[in-house]
Amino acid sequence: MSLLPNPFNALIIGASGTIGSNFVKLLESNPSCSKVIGIHRNSAHAIDYHHPQTIEASANSLTELGPFQLIINTIGMLHSEEWMPEKKLGDLNSTQLAEMFNTNTIGPALTIKHFSKLLDPKHSVMATLSAKVGSIEDNRLGGWYSYRASKAALNMIIKTASIEFARTKPNIALIALHPGTVNSGLSQPFRGQQIGRDPLEAVTDMFNVLANVNKEDTGSFLTYSGEKLPW
Ligand SMILES: NC(=O)c1ccc[n+]([C@@H]2O[C@H](COP(=O)([O-])OP(=O)(O)OC[C@H]3O[C@@H](n4cnc5c(N)ncnc54)[C@H](OP(=O)(O)O)[C@@H]3O)[C@@H](O)[C@H]2O)c1
């Protein structure tokens, strides 16, 4: 049985991004969604992974607006103004590795820690955007060292927390979600505009997957089409 009740309250983290803002747009027009709140580093209840104390402060500031039955964290990065994904071992550097792990692993891990308190213990779903290239088993092309590694580590955090939750909060599902290639600022340098999917179409597909998640799905790595990915 699906964990997402009707009606439900939703919280979108990283609502300034392409996927995050489209989730807000989609849920604002969904009659089953009573309330959707979008937060990012420049919003009310600001959350900024460069300032980890904002993660707990943001969650605490949202207590009275909860509980939420759906939380989706879309924060993530692939490149910056200073660097692009590494093509070879020789490109590895500590600055890029640290920044990628901070944004794609440490921030999302602390977000699960603090924001899971806002979830409805009776029935809810928390999804964190991961990426198929974070699958170790599926890695055939190589490259993109820090992005792949930071998403693989994120997947391990989600899986581990889901095992703990199965004991302590059995009606909450934690999901690692792959959006597919979506036309956004993140995919833009990699022909995202040409090969990426329309963001609203992508979030519609992802929402349909999350709306059908049940208790047994917790700790899964799912694609936008509901397929289970290998770790
Ligand atoms: N697009 C794709 O093809 C694709 C494919 C696979 C996986 N994904 C994953 O999907 C998620 C969303 O991607 P997107 O395409 O929507 O990218 P995007 O448009 O670049 O959005 C990224 C979001 O992350 C936020 N962010 C980045 N660094 C942050 C930090 N240090 N603190 C707080 N917020 C920070 C951005 O905030 P600002 O607006 O303030 O910068 C923005 O809200 C990411 O986790 C990505 O890895 C995307």
Written account of the structure:
With 231 residues, the chain is an alpha/beta fold. The protein has one domain: NAD(P)-binding Rossmann-like Domain (Rossmann fold, 3-Layer(aba) Sandwich). The chain has six helices and six strands. Strand 4 (124-129), helix 4 (145-168) and strand 5 form a beta-alpha-beta unit. Helix 1 (18-28) packs across helix 6 (199-211), helix 2 (53-61) packs parallel to helix 3 (94-115) and helix 3 (94-115) packs parallel to helix 4. It binds NADP nicotinamide-adenine-dinucleotide phosphate. NADP nicotinamide-adenine-dinucleotide phosphate (NAP) binds at residues 14, 16-20, 40-41, 47-50, 74-77, 103, 129, 131, 179, 181-182, 184-187, 192, 196.
CATH topology: Rossmann fold
Task: Tell me the distance between the termini.
Answer: 25 Å
Q: What is the mean predicted local confidence, pLDDT?
A: 97
- Please tell me how large the radius of gyration is: 17 Å
CATH architecture grouping: 3-Layer(aba) Sandwich
- Which structural category do the helix and sheet elements fall into? alpha/beta
Spans where pLDDT lies below 50 across 5 or more residues: none
**Spatial strand arrangement across the major sheet:** 2-1-3-4-5-6
Distinct helical segment count: 6
How can the largest sheet be summarized?
Answer: 6 strands, parallel
- Level-1 CATH class name: Alpha Beta
Rough shape? globular
Helix and strand element order: EHEHEHEHEHHE
Number of domains: 1
Unique ligands: NADP nicotinamide-adenine-dinucleotide phosphate
Give the strand tally.
Answer: 6
CATH 4th-level superfamily: NAD(P)-binding Rossmann-like Domain
- The percentage of residues in β strands lies in 5-15%
